[in-house]
Each structure stands twice: as C-alpha cells, then as structure tokens.
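agent> fetching stored inputs for the adenosine-5'-triphosphate docking request
agent> found them:
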Amino acid sequence: MDDNPLIRLTDVNFAYDRRPILTGINMVIPRGKVVAIMGLSGCGKTTTLRLIGGQLKPSSGKVEVDGQVVHELDSDGLYELRRRMGMLFQFGALFTDMSVYDNIAFQMREHTDLPEELIHDMVMMKLHAVGLRGAARLMPSELSGGMARRVALARAIALDPMLIMYDEPFAGLDPISLSIVGELIRKLNDALGTSSIVVTHDVQESLKIVDYVYFVSAGKIVAEGTAEQIKHSTEPYVHQFVWGEPDGPVNFHYPTTRPYGEEMLSGPGRKQVWW
Ligand SMILES: Nc1ncnc2c1ncn2[C@@H]1O[C@H](COP(=O)(O)OP(=O)(O)OP(=O)(O)O)[C@@H](O)[C@H]1O
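agent> prediction call returned; pasting tokens
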C-alpha cells in the first residue's frame, strides 16, 4: 500500500449526461513509476486522463494529484497544477506553423519569465534528450512520424513536469520508431524523476517499459498487476488482450439481442415475403 502516491483515484464514477463511462475506478500512480492504462477503444482511457488533468469532473468519487483534490481546485489552482503536468496528446499534434524549436519554447515562454538565453539552453537540453538537437530549425512538415513524436515528447517535458501523460504514444509508428519512443518514455521518466501514465492498446511495446498496468473494460478496471504478472496472467480478458486472440471474452460482434436470422428476414422489402 502506497501512502503517498502522486495520483489516487478513489471510487470514481463519471457519466456523459446520464451515460456511464467510468464506474468504481480505484487507481494509484506511485511516484517515479511508469503505469499503463490499457483497454479497447472507447473503454474510458482518455476520459481517465482528462479527470486527472481536471478537464472533467467525476460524477462521484475523488481524484487526487500530489495531495490535492483536482475537482475542488479553483481555476488558479488548476492552472498551477496543470503547469506541472506534461501531456502528449493522441498523435502528438505539433503547431504546424512553428519550428521544432519554437514548439518546445512555446510552453516556456507562456508559463515562465525566463530570458531567451535560458530558454534556448532548456530547449536544446530537451531536444538533446530525445536525440533531435540537430532538428531544432526544421518545421513539423519536414519531420518523419517518429521524429514528430519525439518532438512532442520533448514538448511534454518542457517544464520539467511531475507527471507526464501519454495518450496513445505509439499510434501509427513503424516498429523502430515505436521502440525508440518506448525507450524514451522510460528513460525520460527515470532521468526526470517524474511519474508517467501511458494510455495505449499497444500491449507488447508497453509491457517492455512499464512498471504496472491497469486494464479497463467498459469503464471498469478488470485486471491490474506488474508487467510480469500481466504477461503471465491466465485471466481470460487479459490473456486475450495480451496475445491478440480473436476469440475470448471480448466479442467480435457488438452486442445485439436480435438473432441474425430474424434480422436478415426483416430487412427493407422483405415484408411481403409469403413465408
Ligand atoms: N464529449 C463526449 N461526449 C459524450 N461521450 C463521449 C465524449 N467523449 C468521449 N465520449 C464517449 O466516452 C467513451 C469513452 O471514451 P474515451 O475517449 O475515454 O475512450 P478511450 O478508451 O480513450 O478510447 P480510444 O482508445 O479510442 O481513444 C466512449 O464511448 C466515447 O464515445
């Protein structure tokens, strides 16, 4: 039991209007660790990140970050808290009209009064950390997908955050870029002494780099454990997910109560059929 985790979600429920998205979520992100939230599309992973970032408020339950209840903060408190969180959004969108250098300097200029010489040194340090110091003057359109993702990573750590949240950091990358980005997530976490949350459905890549995994299905945590425990899990849902098996508790068919035969016989133009 971690008495002082960076993040704690306690009995969190969240609904859009009256449609439940998350139910009874209990989750802990320890300091200094990399934790993955995995699950199929639409299960509520991004929603969980948005609750932690304070963009959404839970319908009930508590979201605590570094000892503060996120949804009880006023706008100044929230602004201050968010400044200490780095975020790599899905597909790591960069500002397309700014150079790589300016993309990273942007946060520093927005949130600090640091002089340009210092910003220069910090931008170069961040770019060096992701191996792209030489790309500082390029525009985003001149980068490969893997390079763009690394720039987005450098931008996420621009302000030395206490927490970095990655939303699908591996999406659309070739296998080499994928493992470079994976290794960088781990290295940056350890070098900066932050905590990281990786939202992903890329099981194999993330199991190589994370300390702990939460599996979410239909808005509930259905399994959790260390990367080793997850790899060897016999829990049917986890096993199916980890090994990418088509058959198992996750159905190929979206649920329907209507038998297939009945559906086919009741289509348009079928009403007059004599049988
Ligand atoms: N603004 C919104 N209004 C209503 N429903 C929403 C909204 N945003 C997301 N949802 C719904 O909430 C559910 C959870 O979405 P969420 O984005 O958290 O899933 P996810 O697990 O991150 O999926 P993906 O991997 O595809 O990004 C989905 O069913 C989605 O349709």
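agent> quick read of the result: The chain is about 35% helix and 25% strand.
agent> awaiting further instructions
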